[in-house]
Amino acid sequence: MKRAVVFIFIITFILGISVCAAEEKAYVTVSNEDVVFANKEVVLKDADGDGKTTINDALIIAHTNPDDYGYENTEYGISMTKLCGVENGGAYGYYLNNAPAMSLSDEISNGDTVYAFVYTDTVSFSDTYCYFENSFVSASKGKEITLTLMQGGYDANWEYRSSPLS
Q1: What is d(CA 100, CA 94) in angstroms, rounded to the nearest whole number?
Q2: What is the pTM of this model?
Q3: Quick one: which of 148, 152, 144 has its CA closest to 134?
């Protein structure tokens, strides 16, 4: 009986460790006219100490050099002040799973994708967000694949819509 209890305890302990050891990851892409890094895998954690895992945390973790990313708390929430080393007065965009995010404080979870960019048009903000319909594709060498390039935008009611780019 003692052996059975000890055996069950050991198995429960081992299973508990392996469940706790599973790391949640997100994929971060950052661009500044050119792609700085694409689908960079980051292990999610609360990097800014606000008690939750957010877009801001993923961006902090993704920037290898901490001087290349900056943010501050403002009356509107967290605002980006620097992205991939560029300070341009706040002209940055960011998307979560290919949809516009409400805030850098939006929570993220395992498998999410974050895309952040420096606007090139800081006057009329005419930059168009484009992405491939599938973020990850597996193919064998010599095997043909088909990709669909999508563009995001807003309709007359300011609802976000994606459509294939012609």
Answers
A1: 7
A2: 0.80
A3: 148
pLDDT classification of 18: cutoffs 50, 70, 90: very low
Residue 13 φ/ψ, nearest 5 degrees: -65, -45
Q: What is the per-residue pLDDT for 91? A: 92
Rounded Cα–Cα distance for residues 142 and 102 (Å): 41
Output phi, psi for 104, to 5 deg. -65, -15
How many whole angstroms separate alpha carbon 160 and alpha carbon 98?
11
Residue 64 corresponds to which tokens in the numbers above?
């290898």
Among 77, 76, 86, 99, residue whose Cα is nearest residue 30:
86
The pLDDT > 90 percentage for the chain reads 63
Q: Which residue shows structure tokens 């971060």?
A: 28
